[in-house]
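>> Question from a student workshop board

For tomorrow's exercise we were told to take the sequence and the ligand below, predict the bound structure, and bring the output to class. My setup keeps failing. Could a helper post the expected result so I can at least see what it should look like? The ligand is alpha-D-ribofuranose.
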Amino acid sequence: MIDTDPGIDDLLALLLALGSPELDVRGISVSYGNTVVENAYRNAVEITRRAGRRITLCVGARRPLKRDLAVAAETHGASGLGYAELPPAGVILEWVKSLDRLLADQPEPVTLVTLGPLTGLALALRREPDLVRAKVARHIAMVGNLAARGNTTRYAEFNAWCDPEALDAVFRAELPTEMVGLDVTREAVLGPQEVTRLAHSSSPLARWIHDALRFYVEFHKQAEGLDGCIVNDVLPIAALIRPEALEFEEQRLVVDLGKEEGEGKGKAGGGEDQRGRTRAQPDGARVRVATRVDMGVVWPLLSERVFRWATRATPTPITEAGATA
Ligand code: RIB
Ligand code: CA
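>> Workshop helper replied:
Here is what the output should look like for this input. Compare the format with yours to find the bug.
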């Protein structure tokens, strides 16, 4: 099961998961994060439709537990998928199942991959802690950073920064959680030439992925002077397919809650706001932290199961509004 805030790197992660026979994607839980939840839900519908798959969708979270909602339009575009063409959003999400209900429907325990803020999982733990422990055999999260510089503030990674209270609750639950943070994902820089190659394909799907990725490449150039783009969310999925892709160490971690909303940004008592900073602390929660990545294992998966697959794919027809054949 994948909890995601699609999101351009989420797009690649979802296509990799859906294109890998080793994985049985039992459901996709959609969260706010890179964009508002209505866009993220529409994006998840469009991604699974273009992948030719019918996957049960639910809504993990619409907004943070306490914090103001903040999305990353500058990074992923107003739609959440850059320049990719999309149908209108606006699905009324009131009657869509929540993550805990989707977990309850699973006959067997699952691996839960979270690729966005941890709010959905924190809400499920708050509502049904015993159910979550019974049905989540393993939790692997793209979240946080230790030695690596943050990408939202100097100290914090975006998924942790969005809802530090949620990450704090998830850490304390010791499901157990495996953290795939910026310390390894910053090595997952997809080169501009890989992105450009998609533009020259005759496949509409390849060009659609290109339209999403080229926005993301433009952002990385402008924000970090980087050639290419960091495909963070691909790593947890790749590690499920090829465990040798990542090495982990058990550490004891905490997440700083920083200053309450409205306490003013920036300097807190002389120091910059530590909101969302994940760091080692002897009495912290037990978390397995990804410390090394072998991109030589990851790139062939992405190349074969997403990019090469996309260039061969034929469009999935729409039979009625949004449904797939
Ligand atoms: O910090 C990177 C993470 O935040 C990725 O999961 C990206 O998609 C955003 O959700
Ligand atoms: Ca994400």
